Amino acid sequence: MSPTLTFALAGNPNCGKTTLFNSLTGARQHVGNYPGVTVEKREGRLSVGPREMAVVDLPGMYSLTAYSTDELAARLFLVEEKPSCVIDVVDAGTLERSLYLSVQLLELGVPVVLALNMMDEVRRRGLVLDGKRLSAILGVPVVETVARVGEGREELIREALAFAEKRRGPWEPLVISYGADIDQTLLRMEARIEADRFLTDRFPARWLALKYLEGDSDVIALGRANGPTAVVLEEMAATLSRHIEATLASTPDAVISDHRYGYIAAVLRQGVLKSSAARDRIAGSDSLDRVLTHTVAGPVIMLAVLYAMFQITFSLGQFPMDWLEAGFGWLGDAVGGLLPEGMLRSLAVSGIIAGVGGVLGFVPLIIIMFFQLSFLEDLGYMARVAYMLDRVFRAFGLHGGSVMPFIIAGGIPGGCAVPGVMAARTLRSPKERLVTILAAPFMACGAKIPVFLLLIAAFFPGNAGLVMFLVTLASWAAALLVARLWRATVVTGQGMPFIMELPPYRLPTLRGLCIHTGERAWQYIKKAATVILAISILMWAAMTFPGLDEEQRAAFEAERAAVTAAASAQEQRDAIDNREAEAVLRHSLAGRVGVALESVSRLAGFDWRVNIALIGGIAAKEVVVSTLGTAYALGEVDPQDTATLSERIAADPAFSPLSALALMAFTILYAPCFVTVVTMAKEASWKWAGFAVVANTGLGFLVAVAIYQIGRLF
Ligand code: GDP
Ligand code: MG
After folding, report:
1. CA distance linking residue 409 with residue 406, whole number of Å
2. Ligand 1 closest atom vs CA 117
């Protein structure tokens, strides 16, 4: 009878694989580091009761990204033969270095059992290792062994058998975050690989994508022989490589290996290495982290950094923003003067310039904020933020793995919920992943920022930095509280352990910062010039048609005619024009919807104009600003009036600081934008995406009403 299960022994050279192989199989293989260029397959048999297993001794390797021929042969064996279980033999005395291979085996997804070998030496050196803790964190069995005397042999066999049974079927790759740039490219490559079914029968998609980024020549050659997808993947890898060269003066494989070591360092920090001597060895390189991630000082510094960032943004950004707003005001007047009165002028001035200009007016602030964010990100500080928040997150039924998706979604303002929702893929636990997907859209994404900025400029200009800081905290609070709520009601179940990795600090280059900032600013501008422009035109049409009917128009005409040649004639005529413009807006399609909703929305202090803007905001959140811009521009007829949108809103009696607060709360909470909803549906399901639209809007309305009604009591 041929054996049904195959165990492969993998590990660094000289970790004791062959010793273990001999002990398991009773073979008398030559113990020592064999330098063979090819693997002669050293295969032996192991019987447990009636069962017989094949055991394969692989050549030593440090990495699965093959540098030498025997590493390549070992990898080929894993991928081609798909052993039922890999016994990863680890020299427990050099855990940090040895785990580098283990992490890659886990990323490949093959079932792995860790044999912590040479425990006798470890004990002699006075190091204390916690194998159980390591097992809980990595999610694989860990057995302490002394291969030379056979210690741990029985337990190892038992665990390997049980795990091979348990993990029968498709491999389950570990997903590690490699930082925003690489993660996003990986996601796109994965999508492509899966869509084209490119070598998916042989490798997990993410692993294959990683090999491309690491520049693995063997995989690249294999890819080229397997169809046109290879060209696309190589191109994506080359683009990322250029980007990383330009921004970090590094290469993707260096960054990837940094993150793997960061991951390992984080694993060992979580109480795996107990003796102080050993812990110092790992943390010693990072004295900065002792301060920046200190239990008390860390969070204080984190809040101070965030607060300082907003203060700098607003104090530096005020002037260019004023100039830009004035510039769009002037442009509107100039274009208005050139075009004849009528639909075309209304579309150009009120629809396009007021709408898109309202969004573009915030470009200076966005650039200053993105620059600081890029600095913190490139420095490696964001990873520390995630590390610190891990503790907080556990209290809300999430875990540290949700921090990065939240940050990407706009936890540090300016992100986007779409990659945020996608980044939740790094979560292994389905419950926490779903809740992260549901909560990520509450973050202050780049599209909500102009909405907040507009309301702040109108009602809290003196405390802009502080209010923006509080809005950010409120977004986090909303995400955490709602996550807790869903974890207690609709997404119940046990959580999973998680490790947060800490890549090394790196001083960003000015060039890198400029590239990152430029890219983000450009994306913002591009969106304003395309999507927002299109929606602005649609919203303008909805706010213009159907026009007043003949009778109504005649009534206003008659009123105007009735104005006598009195001294106040011009004033009276302006007042009539204003009333007519408002009547047109109310009469329009959007106006009717806005007015119809007013009886309900009034509870939260929103008038019909705000209702129109909020409905538009479901298409894209910037549209709230562009729609308000159009709505106020349509209602305003005095061509001499050069008030900015924030001034108009501040002067409107329908608005108050209190209703502005309620509106900000609603903006944080209500339905995700259209693209996010589609992404949520793809990542979870349409059912959950629909749930988010309905539940978030309901929740947002309740909170807005509560703020407005309670605020009015004071
Ligand atoms: P391989 O290169 O991974 O196949 O390692 P070997 O099995 O050839 O072992 C390398 C060296 O480590 C040999 O000298 C072994 O005797 C020694 N060794 C193996 N396991 C242990 C152990 O658990 N404790 C100690 N102290 N030495 C071991
Ligand atoms: Mg050997």
Report:
1. 5
2. 23
